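Chapter summary example: a protein plus 5-aminoimidazole ribonucleotide.
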Amino acid sequence: MAAAVVGVVMGSESDLSVMRPAVDALAEFDLRCEVRVLSAHRTPDAALGWAREAADRGLRVLVAGAGAAAHLPGVLAAVTSLPVIGVPIAATALAGVDSLLAIAQMPSGVPVATVAVDGGRNAGLLAVRILGAGDEALRGRSDEFRAAQAAQVAAADERIRGQFDRDPADRENLGFR
Ligand code: AIR
C-alpha cells in the first residue's frame, strides 16, 4: 500500500462528518492519508508532536479542522513547514464564525490556507492541487476532474434551459392555465 502523503486531523470526533469529505476527496485521487483526532487545547503535546514529525513520516500536506476557538491549524503551522489547510467547523452558537476567524486571521509569518466553514471537501481537493503542483500525473487528474465538473454544469444548463425556454404566449407549455 502506498504511504500516506496527507495528514487529516480534527480537534474532536464530533468534527468527523465535516472532515470525512476531505478523506473521500483524497481517496478519489488514490491518495492515502493519515487521520487523527488531536486537540490544540485538550491534547496540545500530542498535537505538536504529531506535526513536528509529520514531514519525516512522509506527509506532504496537513489538513486540520476544528470548531469553536479553533487554534489547531495555526499551532500545527507554527511547528512544521508543511503547508497547512484549515477547515473552520460550525460547532457552536456562532455557527462557525468563531472558528473561521481563528483560522483565517493568522499572524504574518505563519500561513494557514483557510477553506469555507464546513468545507472539508475543498480542503481535500486543495491538498490534491498542492501535491499536483509537483506531480504532472496528479495534476492531469485534477484537469480531468475540472473538465468532468464543467460537463456536469453544462448538462444541467441544457436541462434547465430546456425547461424554461418556452414561448410565454404558449401557456400550455408553461405548465399553467
Ligand atoms: N476543539 C477541540 N479542542 C479544541 C477545540 N477548539 C473543538 C473541536 C470541536 C469543538 O471544539 O474541534 O469542533 C467541540 O468539541 P467537542 O469534543 O466538545 O464536541
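Key point: Helices lie at 16-28, 44-54, 72-79, 97-104, 120-132, 136-164, 171-174.
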